[in-house]
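Preliminary data (for renewal application), adenosine monophosphate complex.
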Amino acid sequence: MSVTVVTTIAEVRVAVAAARRAGKTVGFVPTMGALHEGHAALVRSAAATSGFVVVSVFVNPTQFGPKEDFAKYPRTLEADQKLCGEAGAQLVFAPSAAEMYPERSVTFVEVKELDAELDGPARPGHFRGVCTVVLKLFNIVLPDVAHFGAKDGQQARIIRQMVRDLNVPVEVRVEPTVREADGLAMSSRNRYLSPTERSTAPAIYRALQNVKARALAGEIDVARLESALHAELAAIPGSRVDYARILDSETLQPLPRLDRPALAAVAVFIGTTRLIDNVLIQ
Ligand code: AMP
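Predicted structure:
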């Protein structure tokens, strides 16, 4: 199927308005490009729900820290366009930074409390950048339904809260994490991994599965579970554990005992590549 690529906000508005006049509902998948099968699953789900599907491809500078990989983040627009077309999207919005941030912006969206742990402290300003750009994209695309991946579990939780708190008229759907055959969560950053790193990286998901199995077998002491998880991740050759936490999946706050649904979430450097993954324990 053919998909149109546009770069301006005005073009998105015209295309979406035409789709609406034709009676179609509008689905939206925000991405940073370098698309893979995880993104394709979101687009297919959007296409199954909505008659007109918009995918944004924008490497958002405001969600990267000064020492992060903004400059080297992979940019593969032609391949992204092809994947979007095959997965059933109608429109790809690939704006420049100048189109999204034309002059000095002084308005930001901040979701408190849910950013107290995990990538909040690990990546200061990250979620403010994410929420601000996602709300801007919502206001540009005006979707009925927006699709996010469980792979970025904290992000999905925060976006849901933003939509609820600010009465944003968008339905948020969170889709399961898509994995490689060996369990590694698909990520645009996996392409940074050397062959050796790629062969060790699936141990991240194995560690998450092991801690979940321990929990389901009856271990409810979160400190013990976290330290076992941390130790298993630290034993991966060439790894450095950024965090390995088990939190209340609703509040994303620490919990002493596993007496409610929890999210086991990790960030691990394999060499210089920072990978995140999570599993729900309930
Ligand atoms: P990204 O471009 O990687 O920032 O992600 C764009 C969207 O795709 C986010 O909602 C992610 O959670 C989602 N996503 C990324 N990787 C995966 C995956 N392996 N499975 C499911 N969704 C994913």
